[in-house]
Amino acid sequence: MRIVVAIVAIICAACPALAFKAHIISLHARPSNASPSKLLSAPPNPFRAAMPPALPAKDEEDLTSKITTYLNTVDPNSCQTPLNNLKTLLRITVPSVVAAVGAFFAFPYLALSLAAAVNNAGVFAVLSQDSSQFVQNFLTVTGLLFSILVGQTYYFMYQQQEAVYLSLFNEVTEAKSLLEQTTLIAGSRPIYPKILAYINSYINNDLRQLNSPPSRLLARRPDKDPLESIMFVTSVGVPSSLYETVRTLRQARAGRLGSMQRKLPSSHIFLLQILAFIELLSFPLLGAGTQTIGGYNILTVEGYLFAVMTFGIVLTLRTIMELWNMKGAYNVEGVMKVMVSGLEEELKERMDGCRKLPGPDDGKEWYDVE
């Protein structure tokens, strides 16, 4: 016993000495350029674990810039960015998931509350067995009305989306035609820079104003219309040869504004939500009858099904609202940006006098604006 106590005492006495020796060795192993004050001020704790090196600030900035670049990269096929798709998914799925979770936890409470309010064996028998098929007919009628109205609304919204794309392609094509004819007709005239300025104003203040109310854009005074200004500076007494192109461009603009005008009122969306609420309200009523057969366990199973159905209905309504508002992935701003980019680049080059056109037969080149 004395031998064991002696060994323990020797180990306890040797540990501080070994620790101090290791600390001295580590101090001598440090770089020679370290100041003595820093070496002495370091806490003598040789058992402290070394901290992992922090991520350089440059790497963090590079990672952030890569994520930002990826989210704002335009897909060449859909002309949409991942950021717009992400916003649409969040606006659609998050409310749907929240509604589904709330429906799952609220279903047993609603069913038991209705059962406590009714508290009649005959009513429970009818609800649980549905002998009169009244509840089944009620669900059929409400589901049919909701599906018809939702289907027609979605089809109408998608048709409007298609009309917007067709009108945009038509209008941008006519705008390019106007720019080309302006160069051929007025390229050597003093009014050429002014016409290019009017076309630039039309692109920035009219064509690209997708979020402005279409009726307000069309209701502007003629003296504030760039296309009217082009007609004014190019026509002396009689309409110029640009008249037909400007008239066609105005018709294309009218088609674009008409297709982008919101046609369904907000009350239509409100009626859809009322029908969805009526359809969902019938299921807690059925749960009040079935709880007499299976108890709370059957309400839990029905709660799962009720949550899934709530998720689907809210998902459908949110998709229709996204189409109705023309936001996120259903926005045409990305397509417009891609379509107008070539027109804006060509217009800028001509306004700066840097665009070269094929010269005469001798092979020389000449500039639009000297």
UniProtKB/TrEMBL annotation:
Residues 1-19 form the signal peptide. The chain crosses the membrane at residues 97-126, 138-157, 267-286, 298-317. Keywords: Membrane, Signal, Transmembrane, Transmembrane helix. This is Uncharacterized protein.
